[in-house]
C-alpha cells in the first residue's frame, strides 16, 4: 500500500439541506476537538453528570435516568427495545413511514410478537385509532416514531400517554428526527422511554444517542438485572426476570455505569460525549421554545418559497415536522440530476426518498445549525436556477419574494 | 435550570498513562473537527472505502470486509459474536483475565453454550492446552482475547489458526488492547474475525470499532441474511439459517451498507470515521513494525525504571504486552492515595485494577500517542516523588538512570 496517496481529511464544503445528517454547529466540532480524560477522572464523571442534567432539559423531564448510548440513533432505539421487550411480549407499532418499519424490525429481532397499524404515507394516526388497536391487541408496549423523515410527518403524541396509562401499556417514541425542532414533553405527555440522535435538530454529528427512561420503565428493566462476569461481586444479585439478550445495550448495566456505582461497562466515547454536551448546552442557552420557533420560521419560509416556485409538496401539511419538507419532483424533471447539479455546482445537498416515494419526492431539511435564513435563501435560489436550467419554468423572483415576505412577517 | 452554570468544554490537562483511554493524537482530534458530509456524498463513500483499505493495512489482511462498527470496542465484539453465534452453538473461551469473562458474558447473551478454560491471572495458554480443550468441547467458535489489559498479558495466537482450521473451528480475537502495539497478523495467523478499539495503541478516542472478517466468516454470516422491513425489495432474499438477533449489530446489513449496494442501515458516525481514518493513516505512515518497535522501546524503558525503583511487577513478563505494565503496590503504601497524588499534583493518570488484582496492582500504560520518552520519564519521576513523599524509600536516581540507560541502548 502506498500510504502517501492518503492525504489528511479535507472534506469538500457542503451545505447539507437534506433530511440529516446536517452540518454540525462549529462550536460542537470545537468541543469535540478537546483532549481526552480518563474514564473515572472526577472531571470526566462530572461531565457525565452534567450531560444527564442538560438532557433532562432537552427532553423536558425530571427522569433521573437520562443519558447517552454510545452508537448512532439506531443504537438508542435498540438499547431501549432489547432492554424492555421480553421474548414473546406483544408490541403495537403504528407505522406511517420507514422508521415505523424499523421499529417493527428491531422488535422482531428482540423476538416480540409485533402488531402493526398503518396509514398511507403522508398521514398520521388519530388517538382513537391507536386506542382502538390497543384495546384489540393488548400490547405490553406501544412503539411510536414522533417524526418520520421518510414522510416528513409528525405524529401527535400528547394524548397517547394517558391512553397508555389507562391500558397499562409502556409508551416509547423515537424522537431522532424531531427533538429540538418540534415540541416534545416527556413527562407531561406520559412517555416511558425516548431515544434520539444528534444529526438532525440537535446540530451534532451522528454517533451518540440520548435517551430518557421513566421510573416505571426503569423498574421493568431492573427486573432483568444481570451484572456481567468479571466485575460482579457477592453484593450483586440478579433480577427476577430473564436477562436482556445484549450486553452492550443492557440498560441496567449502562445505568450502573452512569450512576454512583460507576460499574465499568463500555469505555465512554468521550469525544462524542463532549459534542453531545455542547449541543444540549447551546440549545438550552437559546431556549428550547426559541429553538423550536426558529425551526418553524425557517421551515415555513422554505415551504412558502417552494410553493411559489410552482412545486407541489408531499403529505398532510397540517402534520409536517417543522424541520423537513417533502417536495414532489415535477413531471419530466430528472430528480437525481437536479440533486447532482445542486451538489456539484452549488455544494448544496438535498435528499432523495425511500421506498414508495423513491424517485417521486425530494426532502429538504432546515434543521439544527442549518435552520437559518441564509441556508433557506441559498437553497431556494440554487434549486430554482437548476430547475430553470433543466427547462422547468418558474415565475422569476416569485419564490424568493415569498420567502422574503415570510421573513418580514415571521416572528423570530 | 440555570444554563449559565454550564461553561464550554475545558477539560483539565492530563497525561493519561493508565491502561487506556490515553491521550488522543492531536492530529486525530483535528481530523475529527472537520465539517460533516452527507451519508451518500461521493466524498463520504470515498472516505469509507479508504477506511476499509487503511484498516486492511493495520490488520495485515486482504479481507474485503474490513470496516467500522459505530460504538465502542465492546460494540465490535458484540457485532461479531451476535452475527456469528447461533443460539445453542458451542463456543470455547480461554479466560486469562477480565476480558475473557466479557467474551463469555456476551456469548451467553447470544445464547451460546459457553465452555471456558482458565489459567491464573498473569499467565497465558499454550497452544496444546487450547487444542486439547477444542478436542474435548468441539466448539463452533474459539473466542480469544489477544491482550487482556486486566492482567497485561498477551496471548500468543500465531499457532492457533492452524489448530482451528484442522478442527473446523471459527477463530476470533478481541485485539482492542493490543493492536498497533504488538504484532497481529490476521491472514498469516488464520484469524476469521477480529475486533478492536481506538483508545489504546491506535491513539484515538473510544467510539468506533474496526473489525475484519475472513471470507469463511462472511459466508457464515450471509447464511443468516435478513434485509430489514422498509428498505427490502423483491430482489432481496433471506439466508437459510435463523436471523441475527440484533439489527444494529447485523454484520450482513452493515456489509451491505459499506459495500457497493450502500443499503441504508445506520447513519455513519462521520466524525468518528474521520478520526479512525487519521489513526490508521498515521500508523501506516510510521510503519506498523516501527510503531510496534516504538511501543516495545518505551514499554521496556518503563519496566527498567520501575524495577530500579525497587518495585515488583505483576505477571509473566515473557508474555507481557508491550504497552502496559502491572506494578505491585508495595506493602504499606496506599495505592489509591498514590494515584490521587499523581493525578492532582502532577496531572498524570495511572490505572487501578479489576477483580482479584484490585488494590494490589497499578497498571501503567505506554501506548499510542503516549508511547513517548517524555511520557515515560515524567511518569517515572512523578511516581518516585510520590512514593518518597509517602515514606517508601528508593535509591535516588537509580530508576531514572535505568530508563536513560535503556534509551541509550534501545533501537528506536
What does this protein structure show overall?
The structure is a homodimer of 412-residue chains. Chain A is of the alpha/beta class and 412 residues long. In chain A, helix 10 packs parallel to helix 12 and helix 10 runs antiparallel to helix 13. Chain A contains 13 helices and 13 strands. The interface between A and B is large, with 97 and 97 residues.
Number of alpha- plus pi-helical segments of chain A: 13
Let me know the average pLDDT of chain A. Answer: 96
Strand composition percent of chain A: 5-15%
User: How many whole angstroms does the radius of gyration of chain A measure?
Assistant: 22 Å
Segments of chain A where pLDDT lies below 50 for 5+ residues? none
Q: Strand pairing plus helix content of chain A: what structural class?
A: alpha/beta
**How many β strands of chain A by DSSP?**
13
Sketch the major β-sheet of chain A. Answer: 7 strands, mixed
Helix content of chain A: 25-40%
- Write the H/E string of chain A, N to C: EHHEHEHEHEEEHEEEHHHHEHEEHH
How many angstroms does the end-to-end distance of chain A come to?
A: 54 Å
Biggest interface reads:
A-B, 97 and 97 residues
**Quaternary organisation:** homodimer
Strand order of the largest sheet of chain A: 2-10-9-8-5-3-4
Coarse morphology of chain A: globular
Amino acid at each position: 500500500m502506498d500510504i502517501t496517496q492518503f492525504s489528511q481529511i479535507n472534506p469538500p464544503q457542503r451545505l447539507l439541506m437534506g433530511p440529516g445528517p446536517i452540518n454540525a454547529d462549529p462550536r460542537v466540532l470545537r468541543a469535540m476537538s478537546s483532549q481526552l480524560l480518563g474514564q473515572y477522572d472526577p472531571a470526566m464523571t462530572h461531565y457525565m453528570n452534567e450531560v444527564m442534567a442538560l438532557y433532562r432539559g432537552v427532553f423536558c423531564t425530571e427522569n433521573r435516568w437520562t443519558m447517552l448510548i454510545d452508537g448512532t440513533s439506531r443504537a438508542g432505539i435498540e438499547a431501549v427495545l432489547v432492554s424492555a421487550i421480553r421474548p414473546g411480549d406483544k408490541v403495537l407499532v403504528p407505522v406511517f413511514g420507514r422508521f415505523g418499519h424499523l421499529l417493527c424490525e428491531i422488535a422482531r429481532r428482540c423476538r416480540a410478537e409485533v402488531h402493526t397499524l398503518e396509514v398511507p404515507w403522508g398521514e398520521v394516526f388519530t388517538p382513537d385509532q391507536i386506542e382502538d388497536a390497543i384495546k384489540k391487541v393488548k400490547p405490553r408496549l406501544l412503539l411510536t416514531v414522533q417524526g418520520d423523515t421518510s414522510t416528513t410527518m409528525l405524529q401527535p403524541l400528547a394524548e397517547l400517554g394517558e391512553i397508555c396509562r389507562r391500558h397499562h401499556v409502556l409508551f416509547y417514541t423515537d424522537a431522532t428526527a424531531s427533538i429540538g425542532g418540534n415540541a416534545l414533553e416527556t413527562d407531561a405527555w406520559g412517555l416511558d422511554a425516548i431515544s434520539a440522535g444528534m444529526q438532525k435538530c440537535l446540530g451534532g454529528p451522528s454517533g451518540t444517542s440520548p435517551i430518557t427512561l421513566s421510573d416505571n420503565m426503569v423498574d421493568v428493566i431492573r427486573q432483568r438485572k444481570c451484572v456481567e462476569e468479571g466485575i460482579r461481586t457477592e453484593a450483586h444479585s440478579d433480577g427476577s426476570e430473564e436477562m436482556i439478550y445484549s450486553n452492550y445495550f443492557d440498560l441496567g448495566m449502562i445505568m450502573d455505569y452512569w450512576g454512583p456505582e460507576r460499574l465499568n461497562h463500555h469505555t465512554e466515547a468521550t469525544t462524542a460525549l463532549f459534542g453531545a454536551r455542547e449541543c444540549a448546552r447551546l440549545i438550552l442557552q437559546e431556549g428550547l421554545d426559541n429553538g423550536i420557533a426558529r425551526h418553524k420560521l425557517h421551515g415555513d419560509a422554505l415551504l412558502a418559497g417552494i410553493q411559489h416556485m410552482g412545486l407541489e409538496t408531499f403529505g398532510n401539511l397540517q402534520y409536517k415536522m417543522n424541520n423537513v419538507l417533502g417536495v414532489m419532483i415535477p413531471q419530466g424533471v430528472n430528480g437525481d440530476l437536479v440533486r447532482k447539479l445542486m451538489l456539484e455546482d452549488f455544494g448544496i445537498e438535498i435528499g432523495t426518498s425511500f421506498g414508495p416515494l423513491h424517485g417521486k419526492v425530494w426532502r429538504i431539511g432546515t434543521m439544527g445549525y442549518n435552520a437559518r435564513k441564509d441556508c433557506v435563501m441559498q437553497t431556494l435560489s440554487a434549486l430554482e436556477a437548476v430547475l430553470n436550467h433543466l427547462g422547468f419554468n418558474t415565475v422569476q423572483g416569485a419564490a424568493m419574494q415569498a420567502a422574503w415576505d415570510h421573513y418580514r412577517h415571521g416572528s423570530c
